[in-house]
Amino acid sequence: MSRTALVTGASSGIGLEVAKLLVDKGYRVLGTSRDPGAVAHPIPGVEYLALDLADRASVAACAAAAGEVDIVVNNAGESQSGPLEELPAEAVDRLFQTNVFGAVQLTQKLLPGMRARGYGRVIMVGSMLASFPLAYRGSYVAAKAALKGFASAARQELSPFGVWVATVEPGSIATGIGQRRTRYVADDSVYRTDFDTMISNLDANERAGIRPAQVADVIVKAIEADKPREFYAVGSNAPLVFLLKRLLPIEVVSSMIARRHGLRR
To answer: Which residues form the Ketoreductase domain (predicted)?
Structure first.
């Protein structure tokens, strides 16, 4: 049976690689972009739909245009940085609408069809920062943690209907996202030196990170599993660091994360 998959943020990075892999495997693939006409390298076989997750009307229009969908990969989002004291309220509101509420609203509109057909896969693309918080990334950390919470609770609700929800947390990935990250810190901020140090190390870690295709492979394996796991982590020595998190006091783990990004805590 041919399945239809909707992949948000399919014009670059992880979303692009997921869309390519699903097309190769014979799925009908709908990919989203804020401006489908401006996709630099459209993937043969992918149908592009407009979606701006920051706009609730756009979310509703995308769901209506997609029609019956068996699989949704909630990948699109914004990467945001800034000290808590200086984050503009409107920036945090936009981040949560884009990274959390938009994904939830889109999924809500697709779930009735999945449930009625007795089959569905919902993949939330999170971040290992949700499990290992980092200074000056608080809004992003909180958004990804919220997305993970929605996913874990919904999984319990939906699995009796054959709809499985999973979260995939990538670590550092070489996607070039650092060039698109929104940053909120004043030039004369008391946090400026620490912030710049963190960003410099974060960008270096991402440049040395795993390829998006490796994350896409994990996502597609989750989609095709008979019973997808609740949680997958990939990159940044995931098995080791999650083991350390279980074995060491949280303060020790937090200090290790800070030092990895050039901060002394």
So the answer is: 3-171
